[in-house]
Specification:
The protein is an all-alpha fold. It has a domain of 61 residues. It contains four helices and no strands. Helix 3 packs across helix 4.
């Protein structure tokens, strides 16, 4: 038997309790979900922002340490913040 982690056990138990229901039009739902996922990762928009020279230099330095272009690092930071994986500290 395959060992399940905590999240997998909770999902399995939820299915066994009958808490999951099939969607009425599975094919349509799958098409819509795939389109949402694809749109999430498409990079088809540009923005221009003004930041301090120091912040830009720090961003470039961090990006260089990670081996990525600074605009890719900035985009990743924004994506993490918007998805809730990067939070503000006060």
């Amino acid at each position: 038997m395959i060992a399940l982690d905590k999240e997998e056990r909770e999902l399995s138990e939820s299915v066994e309790r009958g808490e999951w229901r099939s969607v009425p039009d599975l094919e349509d739902e799958m098409r819509r979900s795939k389109a949402y996922a694809k749109a999430t990762f498409e990079q088809n928009a540009e923005i221009n922002i003004r930041i301090s020279r120091k912040d830009l230099n720090d961003l470039k330095m961090r990006a260089n340490e990670k081996g990525v272009p600074h605009h890719i690092l900035a985009s990743g930071i924004i994506r993490k913040y918007l998805s809730g994986h990067l939070t503000e500290t006060v």
